[in-house]
């Protein structure tokens, strides 16, 4: 079996995008839960730094972290979910997921051609 570090990295990015989608869905589901604090996934900046300083190997070791950003206004019931923010961030995440998926499909087509098989 052929292993490709870039393909593995794309699979990792798909996993992180799926985690982000779950976190956004949880925030949206709890928009009316008193005391609920919105959550976010920390990954992109640390991943980018690792990629630039240590390459694919260093970047592949980065783990996503779920945290409470506390950068939205708290409602009187203690809930701080911002639906506008969640919708925007969810749409951005979906766009990135689709881009990663397109890259994986393209890479798979190239590997299939390189292996001498018809697509």
Q: Classify the beta-strand content into a percent band.
A: 5-15%
Average pLDDT works out at 91
Total helical elements: 3
Alpha carbon gap, first and last residue: 17 Å
String of helices and strands? HEHEH
Count of β-strands = 2
What's the number of structural domains? 1
Strand order of the largest sheet: 1-2
Helix content bin? 55-70%
Estimated structural class: mainly alpha
Main sheet characteristics: 2 strands, antiparallel
Radius of gyration: 18 Å
Q: What are the low-pLDDT stretches, counting only 5+ consecutive residues below 50? A: none
**Global shape:** elongated
Task: Describe what you observe in this structure.
The protein has 119 residues and is mainly α. It has one domain. 62% of the residues lie in helices and 5% in strands. The protein contains 3 helices and 2 strands, in the order αβαβα. It has helices at residues 5-29, 44-60, 83-114, and strands at 40-42, 65-67. Strands 1-2 form a two-stranded antiparallel sheet. The longest helix has 32 residues, at 83-114. It is elongated, with a radius of gyration of 18 Å. The mean pLDDT is 91.
Tag the structure with descriptive keywords.
elongated, single chain, mainly alpha, 119 residues
Write the layout of secondary structure elements.
Blueprint: H1 5-29, E1 40-42, H2 44-60, E2 65-67, H3 83-114
Antiparallel strand pairs: 1-2
Helix pairs in contact: 1-2, 1-3
């Amino acid at each position: 079996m052929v292993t490709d570090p870039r393909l593995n990295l794309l699979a990792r990015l798909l996993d992180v995008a799926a985690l982000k989608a779950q976190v956004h869905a949880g925030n949206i589901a709890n928009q009316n839960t008193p005391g609920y604090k919105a959550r976010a996934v920390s990954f992109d900046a640390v991943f980018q730094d690792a990629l630039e300083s240590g390459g694919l190997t260093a970047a592949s070791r980065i783990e996503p972290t779920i945290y409470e950003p506390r950068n939205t206004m708290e409602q009187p019931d203690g809930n701080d979910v911002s639906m506008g923010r969640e919708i925007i961030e969810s749409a951005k995440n979906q766009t990135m997921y689709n881009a990663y998926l397109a890259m994986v499909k393209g890479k798979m087509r190239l590997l299939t051609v390189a292996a001498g098989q018809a697509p």
